[in-house]
UniProtKB/TrEMBL annotation:
This is ParB-like N-terminal domain-containing protein. Pfam families: HTH_ParB, ParB_N. GO terms for cellular component: chromosome. InterPro entries: Chromosome_partition/occlusion, HTH_ParB/Spo0J, ParB/Sulfiredoxin_sf, ParB_N. It comes from the Bacteria.
Length: 692
């Protein structure tokens, strides 16, 4: 039956009491576009000629919004269904109408929007038709274009909407599937961890380099921007990093040339980073320490005035807080300002001597806002010294630095883990460093699951202080400095570590003082403390020994005790391995898993094509014999394994690990030849070589 809107009102028997203005506005736009698709359920009111709406309150409000904005007449007729019965019957009907309703799943929404777009509608029209924002519709369409296995997982409920949005942060199916395959073995992965892995190889829109060059210039040069439709604009990804770095380099180089001419220095070196530490190390330059500037008489007089005033303020503070006429806040601010002024006066900056200008330079760096600024310090390849006479005059001299044999270790490493497959040549130091970090992260992720072992290792590292020998952990000094910095390829281990950090009980950190935080921490449950311990020890693990290409032997023992399945958490790809080794090494890896016949199939391939082929084969995605596929899925380069070798570099058996996780050190070849710890002369023990 048709009833004028003015004769309808919401019944008290309507069970839906909550409301959402945004959702009501969306429904209002939909009803205006298509009309009312479902009748309102009403009963006769005791008020003459009135009807109470017991089911359809949202539709009633939506129609009211249409009338309020003048789209429909105030007496517009609304299709209703009249229900006869008592108030109890009306309440049951309202409950049934709301309770039995099932909303569309996100996957169904995606398919629906995709259908309308295919039928010829544009995004703006679809958004207006359903009362939604264009960004929401774009986001659902991005989800609809997920790689098929990921979308199927969303439709089946195997992954959440938030996880699907994380994968949709990129529209590149190859990247989505790479991360999806890596996270397949992760326990309860977080959306943030997935977004970090998806972002590898791209640049955020609020990165200092991006802010420096601007999106318009980047796009004009052919760069592509990947919008993250589920986050702020600052989370958009610039995927053509080479273009961004080239534009930044050109802009900073031009500014560096201008500043060089303006300052008269020997050089201005542009660095697209917030500090010049790495550039200084690579250039082999050292900071130039200028001699202190003598204090002027005016400065000395001002310092005496400041000291006198500070003494007056201190005396007022000493008298206590009972002085009603004293503004202690104002006095404290004055004290701090005077103290800062005195510090500046006591440390006057000397101008660079003119004779040094041709020997020194400065670094041009970026602020977090993308602004180019000159670092304050001067640097030189030469050793600059000075002498000051009785009158304060400075005489500067410059000497060439004496050649040294220091620096990073070089030469051909002899350790098995540093040798490329199938050759005598070592892998590059950079590749070894990256593999070392990835291998360490996998060990760290697995250590999270065994707090007892983490505790034992932590106690050992603290107690074994008889020498300065490295123990494979920085537990005494916090987190270690990784040998490979910048963008290092990631595996599922990073996601596991991030998820563990998010799951920690951090309530105790809310306290302001150390004592209060310690008391709050003691109140945690044992499981929460154990999780903190495992996490702290896991993050303390060092990637490798010192500056060389050698692992910590104790990491191999930990890996064996944990029974780390590296192959399940890390697979060699073109990016993280095969592009970084020779063609001979790639063919040698194929020979290891499939014999010479498999290697011969691809012997004529170009190196880049061979690297991609190896990635496919060792990921188990190639159509090959089953036994070869199984061998490929289990294959690892020596640098990613956790195994031990006997002292002296002779390969030995892995320690036997009992059911309770205890390693039998006597099972290692050569262990019987070692004297007892009490009988062993100081310095006689040899390191156990890690063939990893």
């Amino acid at each position: 039956m048709l009833i004028p809107f003015s004769k309808l009102y919401l019944s008290d028997a309507n069970v839906r009491k909550t409301r959402n203005d945004q959702e009501d506005a969306q429904l209002s736009a939909d009803i205006e576009a298509r009309g009312l698709l479902q009748n309102l359920l009403v009963t006769k009111s005791k008020k003459r000629g009135q009807y109470a709406v017991i089911a359809g309150g949202r539709r009633l409000r939506a129609i009211g919004m249409i009338i309020d904005r003048g789209a429909w007449a105030a007496d517009a007729e609304v299709e209703c269904k009249l229900l006869e019965g008592s108030e109890e019957t009306a309440g049951e009907a309202s409950l049934a109408e709301n309770f039995q309703r099932v909303g569309m799943s996100p996957a169904e929404e995606c398919r629906a929007f995709q259908h309308f777009i295919k039928e010829g509608s544009d995004i703006a029209a679809v958004a207006k038709r359903f009362g939604l924002t264009q960004r929401f519709v774009e986001g659902r369409l991005r989800l609809a274009n997920l790689a098929a296995p990921i979308f199927e997982a969303l439709a089946a409920g195997d992954i959440t909407l938030e996880i699907a949005k994380a994968y949709a942060a990129t529209d590149q199916h190859e990247v989505q599937m790479r991360v999806f395959d890596q996270m397949r073995h992760a326990y309860n992965p977080s959306a943030d961890a997935i977004r970090r892995m998806v972002a590898t190889g791209s640049m955020r829109g609020n990165d200092p380099i991006a802010l420096l060059i601007g999106e318009d210039a980047y796009v004009a040069a052919g760069g592509k921007v990947e919008r993250d439709l589920f986050s702020d604009a600052g989370e958009d990804r610039w995927i053509d990093i080479e273009i961004a770095h080239r534009l930044a380099s050109e802009k900073m180089e031009a500014e560096a040339q201008r500043l060089t001419a303006e300052t008269g220095l020997a050089w201005i070196s542009p660095v697209a980073a917030s500090n010049s530490w790495q550039a200084r190390s690579e250039m082999g330059v050292s900071a130039v320490r200028l001699p202190p500037m003598p204090l002027t008489e005016a400065a000395r007089a001002r310092i005496d005035e400041i000291d006198a005033r500070i003494d007056e303020i201190s005396a007022i503070f000493d008298e206590g807080d009972d002085q009603d006429d004293v503004d202690f806040g104002k006095l404290e601010a004055e004290y701090e300002a005077l103290d800062a002024e005195r510090s500046d006066l006591n440390n006057p900056v000397r101008e660079l001597p003119e004779e040094w200008r041709g020997e020194v330079g400065r670094f041009l760096v970026l602020t977090t806002r993308g602004e180019m600024v000159l670092e304050a310090d001067y640097y030189s390849e030469k050793r600059l010294s000075f002498e000051t006479d009785d009158h304060g005059n400075v005489t500067a001299t410059a000497e060439e630095p004496a050649p040294t044999s220091g620096g990073r270790a070089s030469g051909t490493p002899a350790r098995p883990e540093a040798i490329a497959p199938g050759s005598e040549k070592p892998i590059s130091a950079r590749l070894f460093d990256e593999l070392a970090v990835q291998r360490r992260n996998i060990l760290s992720a697995c250590l999270l699951g065994d707090p007892g072992l983490a505790l034992d290792f932590a106690i050992f590292a603290l107690a074994d202080n008889r020498s300065y020998e490295g123990k494979g952990t920085s537990i005494k000094a916090g987190r270690p400095s990784d040998p490979a910095t910048g963008e290092v390829p990631q595996s599922a281990a990073e996601g596991i570590l991030a998820e563990a950090e998010e799951g920690l009980d951090k309530a105790w950190q809310e306290q302001t003082s150390v004592a209060a935080r310690f008391i709050a921490f003691r109140d945690l449950e044992d499981d929460a403390k154990a999780a903190w311990l495992a996490y702290a020890v896991a993050l303390s693990l060092e990637a490798k020994k010192g500056y060389g290409s050698e692992y910590h032997p104790v990491h191999a023992v930990l890996g064996l005790m944990l029974d780390v399945d590296v192959a399940a958490l890390w697979r060699p790809t073109a990016e993280n391995f095969f592009d970084r080794v020779s063609k001979t090494s790639c063919l040698a890896a194929l020979t290891e898993v499939g014999g010479s016949d498999l290697a011969a199939r691809y012997a004529a391939s170009k190196k880049a094509d061979l690297a991609k082929t190896c990635e496919t084969i060792f990921a188990g995605k190639a159509i090959i014999e089953q036994e070869v596929k199984e061998a490929a899925l289990a294959w690892l380069p020596e640098a990613m394994k956790f195994s031990t070798a006997a002292p002296g570099g002779v390969q030995g058996a892995d320690p036997e690990v009992s059911d309770d996780g205890e390693a039998d050190i006597d099972a290692v070849d050569g262990a019987d030849a070692l004297p007892d710890a009490e009988e062993q002369p100081e310095g006689a023990a040899e390191d156990t070589t890690v063939a990893a």
